Amino acid sequence: MGEETERLRRALVHALEDRVQAARRRIEIQAEDVGPREDPVQEGGEGEGEREAVGDGQGLFARVRQMASDLRGGGVVTGKMMREARALRERDENVPSCSRFSRCCIICYHPNPRQRAVFVRCGHIVCYPCAVDYASKSSSGGKCVYCRSTSGFVKIFETECAEGEEADAVIYEKREKRPIPVPPEDSIRKEDDLSPVPVPRAPPSPYRLLIALSFLLAAVAVFIALFMFSD
């Protein structure tokens, strides 16, 4: 763990140095093209380009921190995420979804959760409240609730569609507006033209012929035996 932290720190330092040097080069090029600046430096000795470089460095630091968090197993669960998960859980319990397709959560077994989440590394899908609750209670970083593999989770953005009676009404309306195709008269066959179609009979298989022959030979043998014993 110490080697990984040191490697991330070095990468962050090199990236910040590159950003600062690039910002200084841009400032020098602008100064050569425009000439002397009217408001070069404000209080504290920091120009606009240096403030921009610092801002870029802070954004880069946030991205590197997020990348390190993802490598350890997912982002930190915030209070906003917990409030959203709690609201979704209450809504699912009070107003059940009328979805026709089964989207059962493998943890809480809710049949149709409104918001689901997928774990990036293993691909297991659970409802969003279960993912947030488990990540907030886990102390070893983000892990899949199902297979326990180290992975972060993201939301699944699913579009809501009309379901139930509304969907049936839309389908019926489209069917009523659609004209019924009528076949041409030449292709319509009359009752007089309908002749019975002969069904070809399949030839008997050799197995059936062998069975019939064995029964015939057995009958002949019985008949001969009865004739001989009767004398």
TrEMBL record:
Keywords: Membrane, Metal-binding, Transmembrane, Transmembrane helix, Zinc, Zinc-finger. Residues 28-54 are annotated as: Disordered. Gene3D superfamilies: Zinc/RING finger domain, C3HC4 (zinc finger). Residues 28-40 have a biased composition (Basic and acidic residues). The chain crosses the membrane at residues 209-229. Residues 105-148 form the RING-type domain. The keyword Zinc applies. GO terms for molecular function: zinc ion binding. This is RING-type domain-containing protein.
